[in-house]
Design brief:
2 copies of one chain form a homodimer. The first copy, chain A, is α/β, with parallel strands linked by helices and 550 residues long. Chain A has 16 helices and 25 strands. The mean pLDDT of chain A is 94. In chain A, the strands form 5 sheets. A 9-stranded mixed β-sheet of chain A has the order 2-1-11-10-12-13-14-15-16, sandwiched between helices. The N and C termini of chain A lie far apart (58 Å). Chains A and B meet through helix 1, strand 9, helix 7 and strand 16 of A and helix 1, strand 9, helix 7 and strand 16 of B.
Chain lengths: 550, 550
């Protein structure tokens, strides 16, 4: 695999491939009695240990062998965060097959497209997805059988799916006498499709090496900082970039794992936090919005939660402040992509920051942060010329590293890299200390009079207004300036706010020419399958909009 | 390199080799302004940044190229912990040559043996080692030139060494225009000889891959737990297993680095801790003994120190308690070997331990801990049969992992591995939770009546007596029991203690048949070049000793 020259003198160290199976083996040997707790889609709470998980993963690996699954073949899952899904993470990848996690929030036709493109051989699904599975199964051409992740007595009497198997039957019918195979660490381990807003979804095909290296780096104190003293609840779904790698990095550390299942509403997440004394969680801003709303409305506190990592979209500074100042929960900004496994940067402070004023520290923490070791970033102009790290200059953000894709599965999208760098599609600044801040998606940036206006800043200011629940900013065609910003706003329930008041609110907070030309209020904003606001839908909706300044 | 089969489907991730040069590049890009502070052998304090270090390492890489150093060739250092030594870590390994760190506490003949065995091409030394270098230079057959690590005006007018170069001349005469070469990550990076107590020293030849993986794993919260908020002072020397990897792991995190130079006495280390506000340090028990004695005698406190890692030898529980209870400094036990890069286990607690009594937690913390991800351990009997993890059964400790050697440099010592495992030469127990405790070196264990007595326990009990400064326990031939324990003790200055009182002190603390048969008081114990007590010397000294019980 390596195209690099060897030294005349090679090291004399043990050569062990970096394989995903080694993670669950480590968790079993060193932390065998530590717990994995799951809120099941069946409604109850399930508890067992890393040792149990490893045993059942080996049983499932035997089951996959009996089903005829071969190295490199894809096995799909359509499931929430739970212990059976975790077993499949290890059973499928550990045995040399490729785990393909599918987002169940996609439409049936999209799922069928992805499953066919991936040539999935089997598909495992949570029992509540039976109707969805029945809807797309007829369109899937490569799947030999479907496995419903439940006990025998929960299986339907009859189903439109002919070849329907029961997960617990597969476990029961196989022994745990299984030795994880050793193979080249660059072998494919898992496949995750990006929910591209345009064109067909494209697959990121991870390797065992990239996954293990990503996990090692993400455990570090300036990464996700997970230790054996933590209780971790990944709110970010296991079908979304492998829950940011937590099903791998958490067993590496021996921390107790808590899976929330399908219930991601504020009340359910809060109750699980308290019941299991969760210390660390990770998710996208929309989930935290629900949680903070519930906690605020009911005058609750967090008794164990110490740290949340926020990624997927920029965390509104107002949310960060609420977590930190009202509830004493450290909130850490992270940035990444499906194409990056996903972790690229994390925003943590350095020793020389600790004596700064709180405002100065807060200003740093609102950025997306510096790279963790392994990832390199840079900003370039449209001619790929590198731009300065001055905290002001905008540029197209590129990334590099051993857990960044080199191309998409089956070559979709052609040559992706630009001079060896992956173009992230984000627009960002990087300051002299190396802290990166996303100012926009390159397709969302507003081009006004030849200059760029970043929409994230405008949205953050709008969302810091006490009457605003959500805000999205888009460019609207303008006869003089090409584009000018329109702010699309969802007000908080019962709040009173005029467009003039909101525009006034921007004064002194931003360059005058960045101020939105207009505000429009809506009942809700369109969200995609991963919870992100779909700006292309909003642009579509407002494509005929006439600005008062036009 | 990989002898493992490839999957029919390989991952589509960027393939970047894990190279040591990437660490200093990361530190420069992301933490370029963070400081490296060195107490120089010249006597003053030197300050600069990671960016400066990277620039000068590139200048030195050009200098090495100009000197004709080729990939795989060995370049030796004989130096304390300081910024120039750090530059060589990156310049030598980063350019593809092999950094050979030599322990200056060895005798001149030993150094010459090692340098000849390694076929070192150049040797860099701190200016205070000039007399030592002059003593061994005549016996070194492969070294083309010697480089004294100082400014031009510190160079001697004349020297017995004909080919003597000046470090700062090499820097000044070369530009920083140097691009780190990319090569196979299994290429040799550095070489470290073990100070074997018998036979010739043997070399552990690390690779770039093993070094980077070791650094990544050792950064983790349950490893050395170094973050960008730390100020790190490695007391453990850079000539001793690469200062436990800190010159690699610290730049990975961006923490401020503080190098103590040659002054490792309690006063010097304490002053540097306070002056630079050090939060984290790592070293062997003998150094901490000096520090604690100084701090205790002068009624001082640590104003910034939060955590020390203790390795090399077992940390006496009394020392651990003094650090934790008297000074509030967390003391973490670690275990490793030169042959393991060195980190194998670290003793940290898990979430379920946090509610235990302080005594119960302390009992865990006195063990050597559980493995960090990447390392596997097991205990076996003399027939290599695996022994149970019950916290009681003694066995020969074996280890495995990507940063464990597979053989010694040039095949010294022949086939080292036993069934794929590295025999550590330690005797240990492992408990049901996976916590390992060294009970002895296999050659130090006392065989009494067919059973084993671990000497470390006996030494720890002796050292918990307020009148005891140091203690070593050895087996003395006994007509009935084969061997029985003799305790060799150094009393604290001015302390009053009889052998009867000390033997009485063991009552109730240990199985009766483990109690030493006799005690003898000495003025000092012999120490080796890495600060460890040399038991073979003590055994030699007492080989004619007659026990009163014989």
């Amino acid at each position: 695999m390596s195209q690099y020259p060897q030294s005349p003198l090679m090291g004399q160290m043990m050569h062990q491939p970096l394989l995903i199976s080694s993670i669950i083996e480590h968790a079993d040997r060193q932390f065998g009695k530590n717990e994995i707790v799951s809120r099941r889609v069946e409604g109850d709470i399930h508890r067992y240990t890393y040792r149990d998980c490893h045993r059942r993963a080996r049983q499932m690996a035997n089951a996959l062998r009996a089903l005829g699954v071969k190295m490199g073949e894809r096995v799909a899952t359509l499931a929430w965060n739970g212990y059976r899904h975790m077993e499949l993470y290890y059973a499928v990848s550990g045995s040399g097959a490729v785990l393909h996690t599918i987002n169940p929030r996609l439409f049936a036709e999209q799922i069928a497209y992805i499953a066919n493109h991936a040539e999935d051989q089997y598909l495992f699904f949570d029992m509540n997805f039976l109707p969805l599975a029945e809807a797309f199964a007829a369109h899937c051409t490569t799947i030999k059988a479907y496995v419903m992740m439940c006990d025998r007595d929960r299986m339907p009497k009859e189903s439109k799916i002919a070849n329907l198997l029961c997960y617990e039957d597969l476990i029961d019918n196989n022994t745990d006498d299984y030795v994880w195979p050793l193979f080249d660490e660059n072998s494919a381990s898992s496949l995750c499709y990006t929910s591209g807003t345009t064109g067909h979804p494209k697959g990121a095909l991870y390797s065992h090496r990239s996954t293990v290296l990503h996990s090692l780096a993400s455990c570090s104190p300036d990464g996700l900082n997970v230790s054996a003293r933590d209780v971790v609840l990944p709110v970010v779904p296991m079908f979304h970039v492998n829950a940011w790698g937590l099903p791998y990095s958490v067993p590496m550390t021996g921390a107790k794992m808590v899976f929330p299942g399908a219930s991601l509403d504020g009340k359910s997440v809060y109750e699980l936090f308290e019941q299991e004394q969760v210390t660390f969680s990770a998710g996208v801003p929309t989930v935290w919005l629900g949680l903070l709303t519930y906690v605020g409305q009911n005058n609750l506190r967090f008794s164990s939660l110490k740290r949340t990592v926020v990624g997927g979209s920029a965390c509104p500074p107002s949310m960060m402040k609420t977590f930190m100042h009202k509830y004493g929960v450290e909130t850490v900004h992270a940035w990444g992509m499906t194409e990056m496994s996903p972790l690229g940067t994390v925003c943590t402070l350095q020793s020389n920051h600790l004596t700064m004023s709180e405002e100065a520290r807060q200003a740093i923490l609102e950025k997306q942060g510096h790279t963790i070791y392994g990832v390199q970033i840079r900003i370039v102009d449209d001619n790929f010329k590198e731009l300065p790290w001055d905290g002001k200059t905008f540029g197209n953000l590129q990334a590099k590293g051993p857990w960044v894709i080199s191309s998409y599965f089956k070559g979709e999208g052609g040559d992706v890299l630009q001079d060896g760098w992956f173009p992230t599609g984000d627009v960002a600044t990087i300051d002299a200390e190396g802290y990166m801040q996303i100012t926009d998606r390159s397709k969302d940036v507003i081009k006004s009079g030849g200059e760029w206006i970043g929409t994230i800043d405008l949205e953050n200011i709008a969302m810091s207004h006490p009457a605003v629940l959500q805000a999205a900013c888009i460019g609207i065609a303008h006869p003089k300036w090409d584009e000018r910003p329109l702010l699309v706003v969802v007000k908080k329930q019962g709040a009173d706010l005029t467009k003039e008041e909101l525009i006034e609110f921007f004064q002194g907070k931003i360059a005058k020419w960045w101020t939105p030309d207009d505000v429009t209020f809506v009942d809700e904003l369109p969200h995609g399958a991963t919870g992100k606001i779909l700006k292309n839908k909003i642009r579509e909706q407002f494509k005929e909009y006439k600005l008062p300044t036009a």
